[in-house]
Amino acid sequence: MTDLQIEAPRSPRTRPARGRSNFEMHSWIFMRISGIVLIVLVLGHLLIVNILDGGVQRINFGFVAGRYASPFWRIWDLLMLWLAELHGTNGLRTIINDYAERPQTRFWLKMLLYASAVLVVALGTLVIFTFDPTLNS
Amino acid sequence: MWSWVAHRITGVLVFFFLFAHVLDTALLRVSPNSYDRVVDIYKNPFVNLLELGLVGAVLYHGLNGLRIMLIDFWSAGAKYQKQMLAVIVVIWVAVMVPGAYFMLEHAAKQLFGSS
Question: What is the pTM of this model?
Fold first, then answer.
């Protein structure tokens, strides 16, 4: 046997190399924490909109108005929106890094991804905060 | 390996749906009428079936995500990864069968007319 030393996979790194951030480790942790929270928020959302009380057939503007009368559901939706979009964006970032090989392609795909994430988070947040049950058609 | 492939595919699928879903929900700020019209699309029996597929994708992604976390953080997780995959498949089927019944009940009645 040689005296080759291989660190155990779970041994903690002492510290990030100088001038480097630990971004990938933090994003790894974020995927797990947001994942746990999203299981509750998203499966709860799917159960409410698709199955309870007649499922999707009962959903209309009035249904949303009834729910959004309570801050509880607005906070639920806001948290779900932000966590899901960030979780999904980080997942797609990983996929782009894995499969897009040309630096140019990687760069532009990620720019497109980040632009769409900003749009979705901003638009969704705006709607949740400014929803108006008396809005006229 | 296939559980990993399926995790990626379901993740991308759900991500693209989320994009469309936030846009359609934004019609809440345009007018009640335009929101109601876009939500009516979801009530169509065929789209309803796609929704069931979405629920299945989300459920698999969530269950397999839990399995990944157990592999990462539970000391015996890697050892039991195969058994855990079997467990999540069983849970997935056990949830999807009644889920499909409740989600498609209305569409089935609408299409085949028994009520």
Answer: 0.88
CB A73 within 8 A of CB A67: yes
Which among A32, A120, A135 has CB closest to B32?
A: A135
Is the separation of the CB atoms in A81 and B22 below 8 Å? yes
Q: What confidence tens digit (pLDDT) does each residue in B55-96 have?
A: 999 999 999 999 999 999 999 989 999 999 999 999 999 999
Q: Do A51 and B99 touch (CB under 8 A)?
A: yes
ipTM of the complex: 0.91
User: Which alpha helices (DSSP H) does chain B contain, by range?
Assistant: 2-25, 32-43, 45-73, 81-112
User: What is the C-alpha to C-alpha distance for residues A95 and B78, in angstroms, rounded to an integer?
Assistant: 23
**Which residues of A lie inside 8 Å of B (Cβ-Cβ)?**
32, 35-36, 38-39, 42-43, 46, 50-51, 54-57, 59-62, 64, 81, 84-85, 88-89, 91-92, 95, 116, 120, 123-124, 126-127, 130-132, 135-137
Q: How far apart are alpha carbons A38 and A98 in whole angstroms? A: 24
Identify the DSSP state of A15.
S
- Residues of B whose CB is below 8 A from A35: 62, 65-66, 69
